[in-house]
Amino acid sequence: MRRFAALIEQLDSTNKTNQKVAALANYFKEAPKEDALWAVALLSHRRPSRPVTTTLMRQWAAEVAQLPEWLFEESYHIVGDLAETIALLVQQDAVGSPPSLSQCIEEIIALKPQEEEEKKAYILNRWQSLDNFERFVFNKILTGGFRIGVSQKLMTRALSKAVNIEENILAHRLMGQWSPATTTFEELILDPKPEDQISQPYPFFLAYALEEGFQEKEAVENWHIEHKWDGMRAQLIIREDKHFLWSRGEELITDKFPELDCLAEILPNGTVVDGELLPYKEGHIGDFNALQKRIGRKTVSSKLQKDIPIVIMLYDLLEWEGKDVRPLPLAKRQELLTALYKKTKGEGVPLLLSEVLHFSSWKEVAKERERAQEMRSEGLMLKHKDSPYAVGRKKGTWWKWKSDPKTIDAVLTYAMRGHGRRTNLYTDYTFALWQDEELVTFAKAYSGLTDAEIKQVDQFVKKNTTDRFGPVRQIKPELVFEIAFEGIAASPRHKSGVAVRFPRILRWRHDKKIADANSLDDLKQLLP
């Protein structure tokens, strides 16, 4: 634990990538293998299940620090991080020796089924046996998540240097559902067994937003252009007569889409495809809101499958006949994928092939982009025909050219404090639109203002609060903002009757009064 805490402190103290990679690589070389494996897990967002609520942790910390709960809560709001707040307020001098990282996590896992008093006794004892930064790291493990500027890609690069295995190979080995509780460093990283890899997906290749001036530098005929379908990115794996469906977030979602089970018999073994899960009924693509109804269900009834059937729109071929074909040029992978689709397509087969569009000018491409809403897409994808299927984000060969966002002018009605360095500022906002003479909430937004504007809004919130609901303040409705969003759908779950996707603040409309803000009817006119 002491070694791991020292690593986190090193990572937290520098913004230089090379220094972070060196610190991580050194840790992976020197730490016991069981500790190194848990470090990989924690830094790739695989943490043990939380054994105790943050509410109890706050109560216990206030008790140990001999503070009234209100003062602890005020301290927490100022610091902005619970793990750090507790580390600062409870006993500062370590008593005894800390366990190793793996031992500490094993204790945390064993703690979950215990009674509250036993949990309290353990956690208070650990707080007293750790120094300040070790206590902070221990609390982070309990609450989950290290925001220290280390991406999984950077961690993988460091691991590659430590074990002398190619980065792309390691990225693949670290995909999927694994836990240090059920594997070892050797089995997962150094010498994995082929049978353990049967369900393992490949890392997804992600695109950058199209850069300004791109069209002036590139010839349109060199680019594979298709619609950016508005669904859920997924990878379908067929190996040894079994199929596995993975989301981009590395969640195994096979059981959520039983209508795809038939693909295990239709597609040949040794096939892995990248695509988009889409609602598709009677020959028409549905909206993302319909897909969300499927994603959020623990059990999928026959009625739900009938009401919202799902297909996978094929983008790319990653494995063919058991071989990794990602290094092949996109044009060749697309040729193989098209041939596969033609052999397997048929009535009732839940597969579609994303159409490759052909243009003679960028002007024609721009015109097609304007059809995105009609096509139920988010815009266009531009992929170089010679590009391999890379790992993560890599600028230059894949670009996304999304449709211009929709916008609406709305009134700020509620505000909540932010997190981290902005915890003392009101930065999380709720917006409303007019319905008759009433303001009705329709969206929340957290980004889009400059630091100077955030401070101005914060001052307004503090001076114009009309009511309080815990950390949320209701404020006098006077400020109007232009809100941008990517998509819109009817939603009976929302009071407004409408759900918008990825709302953000486009600009502060100083020139408008609240009477000039838009109405819900204006918003509903944007529905497809």
Could you explain how this protein is built, in words?
The chain is of the alpha+beta class and 528 residues long. The chain has 3 domains: 2-143, DNA ligase i, domain 1, CATH 1.10.3260.10; 205-402, D-amino Acid Aminotransferase, Chain A, domain 1 (2-Layer Sandwich), CATH 3.30.470.30; 406-524, OB fold (Dihydrolipoamide Acetyltransferase, E2P) (Beta Barrel). Helix content is 37%, strand content 24%. Strands 4, 5, 6, 7, 8, 9 and 10 form a 7-stranded mixed β-sheet that branches. Strands 14, 15, 16, 17, 18, 19 and 22 form a 7-stranded antiparallel β-sheet that branches. It has a 4-stranded mixed β-sheet with strand order 2-13-11-3. Helix 1 crosses helix 9 and helix 2 (17-30) crosses helix 10 (152-163). The chain is globular, with a radius of gyration of 26 Å.
